[in-house]
Amino acid sequence: MDKVKPEMTYIDKNFHRFVTELQEAVRRPSIAAQNIGMEEAALYFKNLMEAYGINAKIIPTKGYPCVYGEIKGKSDKTVLFYNHYDVQPPEPLEEWESDPFSASIRDGKIYGRGVSDNKGNACARIQGIGTMLKLREELPVTVKFLIEGEEEIGSPNLSDFVRENADLLRADYGVWESGYMNPDGRPGIYLGVKGMLYVELFAKGASKDMHSGSATTIPNPAWHLVWALASIKNKEEQILIPGFYDDILPPTEKELEMLKDAMHEEELSEEKAREIARKNAQSLGLNNYLLDLYGLELRKRSLFSPTANICGFKSGYLGEGQKTVLPSTALVKMDFRLVPNQDPYDILEKLNTHLKQEGFDDVEVRVISLDYPVKTPAELPIVDATKEAALSVYKKPPVVSPTQGGSGPMYPFKKYLDLPMVSFGVGYWNSSNHAPNENIRLVDYKSGIKMVVEFIDKVAEL
Fold it and tell me: Cα separation of 274 and 233, whole Å?
């Protein structure tokens, strides 16, 4: 029988304090999009690190500040933890069962905006490292923390920050911000992120809103955008921008094997896989997933296919009752999730060219954010070390995914630091990130702190 590490016993005994510290973090609203509570949240994480013996400082940027922490270890081998302290706006408030910044605990879960994305992970990593320092006085490797404040608004200043502070941030291995438990109780490990091009499409008609009776003679910018959107993607989910798919890097055999390993045994049966997919879709109020996909093909599309998604459409009158109006403007927000080796700047150019060729050269394309897709090779030793750490903590083999459906600013770490990143964390499949009633399970939070300890020890063996 394996001997239980003292750190694991310490985490069990001090878990109430760890939860209280997380609650204090969540109760400090830090909404970057609205400039609410940002400096206070940055200071909280600086103070939390210092309370655990980690040298910390706040570093200004052109936007919101970054929090940097460092503790030297026995070895110069270095791990960099990346997290962010900013959170999404909590709206719609009426759909929350408790105040979004109350950090309420019920039914074994803690609820609050940012508890999963991303304050739970940030706190767990600080507490895990703090536990090791408390009991050992010295870490086996050097550890660095970077906690930024602009991830939820596209990290506009992170690339310059990483470039300008490359020597400060230099590390051998990196841990990305997030990770989730699967419905089958197996922890998820992720090796990359999709890229993203986020844009607004804006169309203008008459100089002012008109009576809708004038629709016989006055062009409607809302219809103009609808037709523009219809030229971008068809009903078969094919993106129609010429050259959009040209540079996509197909999954490797190793990555496809990883997907198969992540599947339940019953999913290997076509009939069972179809049944499982439809059941999961029905839990979301749907009859089935897009294109009626299931099993391996569903997983492949989720991870290795790009998207063209409409995030929101605004035009005309949307209030109660009737107002017969022909709007003067129309606005659509879109995101394109990109996969290796798609370049967001190249996709932007192709989008602009496509709109002009289709007769929509008067539609203004406004860029909100761009991110490159990034992927850590599955063959690297850090991947095996992470898997071994997860197996030790969770007693189940982890689900290793070559990438994930979401995006994030991982590219600057690859470009300026050549840093291989792995991702694991304290969330679970129903954490409701970016949605009302965001939450994590307390049992996952405790395991997430323990995972940090095991991960550091496994890295020290590399």
Answer: 26
